[in-house]
Design brief:
heterodimer, A: about 325 residues, alpha/beta, Rossmann fold, globular, B: 7 strands, about 10% strand
């Protein structure tokens, strides 16, 4: 099997879907000859032409609105928002227009919005580090996926492009070039809504997604040396999230830590914790724990950024506390 | 293309039908029988009728709540409108949304939302799809002068101009954004003037003259269809009722309202038809009777349709 970086896996998904389906086209800022700020679309305008890879003005509201219109008119647009933080500039059409269309008048809106999300551990600061999955989890009518591996980056993006609904793909900029892995060639599609057990264990469950799933795996590796077997559940999809997989994991381990890098308060981990408290209470041997970003903007200086972010050491410490309860 | 006598009568007919439907809806709203709040295009009928009638059957519209006439011209039947207003289960929104938010891509209609300028970028995207597929189709959308103060308007107009998409953007300048007059909305002399700076034709039209609106729309539609890119039409009119049915619009100066009452688009077209020998008292009386019967029948038929069931609230969030 081929080995690709997370970024190359995304480009492969785009290329394959564009080659297979003439309705698929890309639009966004600096995605043509420049190839996107992270080069996710590098080479695609040369291969598919400027009608399939459309550079737009800096206008996130119009990018998402126009992509919605093109989807209504039978296309399969894939909009790139340069940074997930800038989804805020296109929030209104997503929340008020795009997400409500199927509920209100029954029309499918096959739209994908890709955006690099998350902190970089490299001082990207308050406006290039956010993890906004919870913003969209509150909005019925949108799907949200956060791939953590190159194989999932390809497979979930392909699933998103083929989905009849608007899907927000929060790519993990921390993983773009840092992470390589095996990626099936050709038609590899990962079903939206299915979590994966990234590492099995019996003593505690760590539910995480995106880059944080890797921090959880690092923590689990360290804990194993201490005799603590932590199970890591990579949620993969935020909406609709895989409750069954999480509840099954908690049933196996009796302990739950939810680790996420968005702000703690009302982050998506709160929803996971609440659901397990409601539906898995009898399986719990310890109170559910959450480990998340601070309730502050995400600071730039490495010392401050590290204080903000959960990492493998903080996760391991939280699991130790759970097991010791 | 010059209008035939039938064309000119047809413009009058749809304005009359639009007003008859909205007058009936107004009365029903007063009786508390509608779901949601009623907004009408009373006094602005020439704009949706004149513009929508310049389109072909494969074109797509993204209308707003003042555009009853655009829906009717596109073949939406009055019974569908009343079913929608009643929130009936078989209506476009099935009771999940209200007012003129009906959508149906099979008939080329994008359903509006209450954030009115949001239809602009969406219409630009529909037009972009036509351009990418090299189809000779046009997208048309309507919005008020109030919407032109939002970022969505400016982003959409700029994107339409840059991508040169086949879109016709129709501004219904009815001079009042709820209670805010145009002098508090923009300092430029006109919306057309502001828009032209984005690099697309922007034309000012007498929005109460249905034939002038129609002629301007035909030109804009032809330009779009021929690859000439988007056009903005600024149609000057006057909102003759409140923003919605609960707004008495006491802030509108009486003299302004009286002046525009003299310029009613329906009366103006009737006069013009009569002067051309295309209309007379007998035809008017026959039309009155026809519309009254058609609207009464539509209201009765819609009122008899089933309401939604509680379980419907859960359904349809996602496509499967």
């Amino acid at each position: 099997m081929q080995t690709l970086t997370y970024l190359d896996a995304i480009r492969e998904a785009l290329r394959e879907e564009m080659a297979a389906d003439p309705r698929v086209f890309l639009l966004g800022e600096d995605i043509g000859a420049y190839g996107g700020v992270y080069k996710a679309t590098e080479g695609l305008v040369a291969e598919f032409g400027p009608d399939r890879v459309i550079d737009t003005p800096i206008a996130e509201n119009a990018i998402i609105g126009a992509a919605t219109g093109a989807a209504l008119a039978g296309m399969r647009p894939v909009a790139e928002i340069q940074f997930a933080d800038f989804l805020a500039c296109g929030f209104d059409p997503l929340v008020n227009m795009t997400s409500t269309i199927h509920y209100r008048w029954g029309q499918s809106v096959p739209l994908v919005v890709r955006a690099p999300a998350g902190a970089t551990w490299a001082s990207a600061g308050p406006f290039h580090s956010q993890s906004p999955e919870a913003w969209f989890a509150q909005i019925p009518g949108l799907k949200v996926v956060v791939p953590a591996t190159p194989a999932d980056a390809k497979g979930l993006l392909k699933a998103a492009i083929r989905d009849p609904n608007p899907v927000i793909v929060l790519e993990q900029k921390y993983l773009y070039r840092r992470l390589s892995g095996e990626v099936p060639e050709g038609d590899h599609v990962v079903e939206i809504g299915k979590a994966a057990v990234a590492r099995p264990g019996r003593d505690a469950s760590i539910v995480a997604w995106g880059a944080m799933a890797h921090k959880a795996l690092e923590a689990a590796g360290a804990l194993a040396a201490e005799g603590i077997e932590a199970e890591v559940v990579d949620l993969r999809t935020i909406v609709p999230w895989d409750r069954d997989a999480v509840l099954a994991s908690v049933a196996r381990t009796g302990r739950l830590l939810v680790a996420y890098e968005a702000h703690r308060t009302a982050g998506f981990g709160a929803e996971v914790a609440a659901t397990v408290a409601e539906e898995g209470f009898a399986d719990l041997d310890a109170p559910i724990a959450r480990l998340a970003g601070l309730d502050t903007p995400i600071p730039a200086h490495p010392v401050l950024e590290a204080e903000y972010l959960p990492d493998e050491h903080k996760i391991a410490a939280a699991v130790r506390a759970l097991v010791a309860y | 293309m010059p209008l035939t006598g039938d064309d000119r009568r047809r413009l009058y007919y749809y304005m009359r039908l639009s007003r008859a439907v909205e007058d009936a809806a107004w009365a029903l709203a007063g009786q508390g029988r509608l779901v949601g709040r009623l907004y009408t295009g009373h006094g602005q009928e020439a704009i949706p009728v004149g513009t929508a009638s310049a389109l072909g059957p494969d074109d797509v519209i993204a209308p707003m709540y003042r555009d009853m006439g655009a829906h009717l011209v596109r073949g939406i039947a009055p019974v569908e409108v009343f079913a929608q207003y009643f929130g009936k289960r078989a209506s476009s929104n099935a009771g999940k949304d209200s007012g003129l938010h009906m959508g149906d891509m099979a008939r080329g209609i994008v359903g509006m939302i209450s954030v009115l300028p949001d239809s602009l970028p969406v219409a630009v995207g529909v037009a972009l799809a036509f351009k990418l597929r090299r189809e000779p189709r046009v997208a048309m959308t309507w919005f008020g002068e109030g919407a032109t103060s939002t970022g969505a308007f400016h982003e959409a107009v700029n994107l339409a101009a840059v991508l040169r998409v086949p879109a016709v953007l129709v501004c219904e300048n009815n001079q009042w954004a709820l209670s805010t007059p145009t002098t508090r909305e923009f300092a430029a002399k006109s919306i057309a003037l502001r828009t032209a700076a984005y690099g697309l034709p922007a034309v000012e039209v007498d929005g109460n003259d249905v034939e002038a609106v129609h002629a301007a729309a035909q030109e804009a539609v032809a330009r779009a269809r021929d690859g000439g890119g988007p056009t903005l039409l600024e149609c000057l009119t006057m909102r003759m009722r409140g923003h919605s049915i609960i707004d008495p619009a006491a802030y509108v100066p009486a003299a302004q309202k009286a002046e525009w009452a003299e310029r009613d688009p329906l009366a103006g077209q009737r006069r013009r038809l009569e002067e051309a020998g295309l209309w007379d008292e007998a035809r008017e009386a026959a039309l009155d009777a026809e519309l009254r019967a058609a609207v009464e029948a539509a209201v009765l038929e819609a009122a008899a349709m089933p309401d939604p069931e509680p379980a419907d609230a859960h359904l349809g969030v996602l496509a499967v």
